[in-house]
Amino acid sequence: MIKEYFKIAVKNLKTRKLRSWLTIAGIVIGVFLIVSLFSLGEGVKQTLTKQLKMMGGDLIMVFPGEVSDIMTTLIGAAELSESDIKAVEKAEGVDLVIPMKYKALVSRFKGEQKQTLIYGVPFKNGLSVFTDQMGWVLKDGTWPRIDKREVVVGSLVPEEIFPGMKVGDEIIIKGRPYEVVGVLVSLGSKQDDQMIAVDMELYKQITGEREDTAPFLMVTIEKGFLVDEVADNIKNELDDSQKRRRGQGEETASYSVITSEKIAGVAGNILAVIQLVVYMFASIGIVVGGIGIMNTMYTSVRERTKDIGIMKAIGAKNSTITWIFLIESGVIGFIGGVGGTVLGLALAKTIEVYGQFHPVLYIEASISLFVVFFGLSFSFLVGCLAGFLPARAASKLKPVDALRYE
Amino acid sequence: MEALIKLEDVFKTYQLGKVKLDALRGISMEIGKGHFVTLMGPSGSGKSTLLHILGVLDLPDKGKVFLSGRDISKLSESELAQARGKQIGFVFQQFNLLMNLTALENVALPMVFQGHSEEERKKRAEKLLGSLGLKERINHRPSELSGGERQRVAIARALANDPDIIVADEPTGNLDSATGKEVMEIFIDLHKKQKKTIIVVTHDPNIAGYSQEVINILDGKIVKNHGTKSKVLWKK
User: Which ipTM value was assigned to this complex?
Assistant: First the structure.
């Protein structure tokens, strides 16, 4: 029976092609919003979660700017000064201070030039932190020797950026050759997996940066100290140092000291807000699409009043009429859902591909079956809900009145 | 013999804006199985309203209607739909075919509502259309058919579920006299050969001449019943 009603419903939709497609377009836009925003939001979340997991719980991070203004810090060029770094090193309980630097530079491999992200890593005294607490593991090769022109690359470099690259190959960065001595296993974030890591001294040579400033410090703690305790010590040292320097007329930047645990918390909060906004916008889109369906279906009921009367006269039950109209709106919703999902995924993928080379803000799209399933079933549901009242109105028409309608 | 359709003191009032219109004012009648009845009367006499009630398309405000002995006021909406689909076939002045369906699909539609299989529906619809001389037109849409052809499709549709009763509301009203005559001959044939009960509304006295019984209606009341055999009872 339902199969027959389905055929009738599809036939009706086809009879009003333009209007059906316009209504479908309304749903497409709503679902498109949901799917693309959701995929991107979810991608950002997954990337962050992975990265946070890679970090051990006992790390302290120091970076310029306020936590509440994290975006400025990430995008902006603010760096911690040499004196700041010294102050951190002086704090009680601090074991190692590992500055991290990065810059996007053009590299060449076998005649192919590409923008790559170069990380300056203090391999000399910091390697153990990377291997023990950041999850750096070699898939192939060795760690670079200090004072040699050697680099290790992230797992995606030989796969995507310079296909075919292997240990022992030569890579040209800023016109000078370096040997690739190691390839890492995936670190969980695309950005990290696409980097080329060099020793800090080498990094300074390559980029020409002389000062020991850093946009980001990682601090490990000595045994027997608590993370929060050491973080407080660092804050005090930095405050004292900055106060002194301000007394000498030097300008100082604000800074943040955070433990990896707290970062997870902050990131979690930001993500929650982002997701809330995403859901809000997406639901507005869907509601508008749903109103479009309802509008179309009411018009359709009006227009087909006589047809409804005829069908009732020849034996259609109220439930039959309800079914036919519900299926029509459900089909509109579903087709809109398919279209919106496809377009949404396409946009998310496009952003992922083109959003790749900002050194820090990396956007990854997460395309899960859940999003697809959600997009499709939600639009179908909205279609049915929006169609419910018009369908009921249609089924409640009295056959005689409906037949008389012109 | 029990009447196929029986009306007991039926009233029907329409509210047209502020004006109350008494379409039917106390009609009692019986129609036996296999009869050919014509309802006649000027416009506004209530004959179409009466036809709708006889075809259980509408319910009376007062009074009782029995279809095969069942009081239809006791039936649910879906039972009424079922009764219309199975026992009654409608033919309208405006043909009332669904414009986006072919002739074949139009004829098959009542069978869809009764849950017949696709194969069964197609076979029967083809047979019905063929018997009415529309074999070549089954895949045409109503807009591609002439008035007479449309009415024959509508008759085929009315016969789809092999109902006992055919109810026709001015079936020749939109046709020229020659085509109208052809259509009436189909009704006569259905009555004679298939023993269908036929109820026709018309104001054309020529058409009334085809039937066994003629009921005249004026101002919502039966005023005259000249049947050859008095199977139609009326009061007052």
Answer: 0.89
| B81: nearest CB among A307, A316, A403 | A316
Rounded CA-CA distance B212/B77 in Å is: 33
Total domain count for chain B? 1
B212 occurs within a structural domain: yes
Does residue B9 lie in a domain region? no
Q: Is the Cβ of A165 closer than 8 Å to some Cβ of chain B?
A: no
Pick from A313, A315, A403: CB nearest B114: A315
The whole-number pLDDT of residue B236 equals 31
Domain presence at residue B10: no
Secondary structure (DSSP) of chain B: ---SEEEEEEEEEEEETTEEEEEEEEEEEEE-TT-EEEEE--TTSSHHHHHHHHTTSS--SEEEEEETTEEGGGS-HHHHHHHHHHHEEEE-TT----TTS-HHHHHHHHHHHTT--HHHHHHHHHHHHHHTT-GGGTT--GGGS-HHHHHHHHHHHHTTT--SEEEEESTTTTS-HHHHHHHHHHHHHHHHHH--EEEEEES-HHHHTTSSEEEEEETTEEEEEEESS-------
Give A322's contacts in chain B (Cβ within 8 Å): none
Q: Is the pTM of this model over 0.80?
A: no
* B52 near A CB under 8 A: yes
Mean pLDDT of B38-55: 90
Neighboring chain A residues of B82 at a CB cutoff of 8 Å: 315, 317
CATH number at residue B149: 3.40.50.300
Segment 2-41 of chain B within 8 Å of chain A by CB: none
* Confidence bin at A22 (pLDDT 50/70/90): very high
Contact B52 A400 (CB under 8 A): yes
* B14 lies in some domain: no
Domain that holds residue B190: 33-61+74-227
Q: Do A399 and B161 touch (CB under 8 A)?
A: no
- CB contacts of A313 in chain B (<8 Å) are 55, 57, 84, 90, 96
User: How many C-beta atoms surround the C-beta of residue A114 within 10 A?
Assistant: 15
Give the one of B81, B89, B118 whose C-beta lies nearest to A312's C-beta.
Answer: B81
User: Which chain A residues are within 8 Å of B114, Cβ to Cβ?
Assistant: 315
